[in-house]
C-alpha cells in the first residue's frame, strides 16, 4: 500500500483530515493533539489544513524522540516481532524542519514519554486527538491524558487499532472504554471515537 507518510496510509490520512475538517466546520472547541508524531508526516498535513482554514487553535505534538519503548505482555504477537525497542527513533530538529520546508508555523512540541506527561502539559480542551503510540501502555497513557479534555463534538483517532502486529493498541482501547458508554468504530486501521 502506498503511504501518505512513512507511517500513515493515504486512506488513513484521508480519514484523519476528514475528521479534522469536520471539527473545524462544526467549530468544536479545543486544540488538535498528536501523541506519537515521529517526523511529522501527519502533523504537517493537519497543520496545512489548520492554516488553510485560519483555524485559531493550536497543534500540539508529543513524542519521546527515543523510538519505541519496551513491549509489555499485552503487545506480544508473532506478527509484530520486527517491532523493537528504539525502532522509529526520530529527531525534534528534523520534525521542525518538515514544518519550515512547507512554510508552516511550528506547533507546540513536547519531548517526553507519555507516562511522564501531566494533564497541564496538554491544552485545556481538545477537539481532535490522534494517538499513534503503537503499544498498549503508550495508548493507555495517551487515552488517560486526552479523554478528560475532549470537547463535545470532538474525536479521538487511534492508529493501528486493527493491526495484528500491534495487538496492544486494540487491547488498550477496549479496556479503557469498557468503563464508559462510548461507541467507537474503525476504518482502515484507525479506531474512531466520537465525543457526544
Briefly, what is this?
With 196 residues, the chain is an alpha/beta fold.
Give the key terms.
196 residues, alpha/beta, seven-stranded mixed sheet, 19% strand, Rossmann fold, disordered N terminus, 30% helix
Overall structural class, as computed from helix and strand content, comes to: alpha/beta
Shape: globular
Determine the N-to-C terminus distance. Answer: 33 Å
**Cross-sheet strand order for the largest sheet:** 3-2-1-4-5-7-6
Class, according to the CATH hierarchy? Alpha Beta
CATH architecture annotation name: 3-Layer(aba) Sandwich
Number of separate strands: 7
Helix content, binned percent: 25-40%
Structure annotation, total helices: 5
Percent strand: 15-25%
Report on this structure.
By secondary structure, the protein is an alpha/beta fold. The protein has a single domain (10-194), classed as 3-Layer(aba) Sandwich (Rossmann fold), CATH 3.40.50. 30% of the residues lie in helices and 19% in strands. The chain is built from five helices and seven strands; from the N terminus they run αβαβαββαβαββ. β6 and β7 (190-194) form a beta hairpin. The longest helix is centred in the N-terminal third of the chain and has 16 residues, at 10-25.
Task: Give the topology, please.
Blueprint: H1 10-25, E1 31-35, H2 41-52, E2 59-63, H3 92-100, E3 108-111, E4 126-131, H4 136-146, E5 150-158, H5 167-177, E6 185-187, E7 190-194
Parallel strand pairs: 1-2, 1-4, 2-3, 4-5
Antiparallel strand pairs: 5-7, 6-7
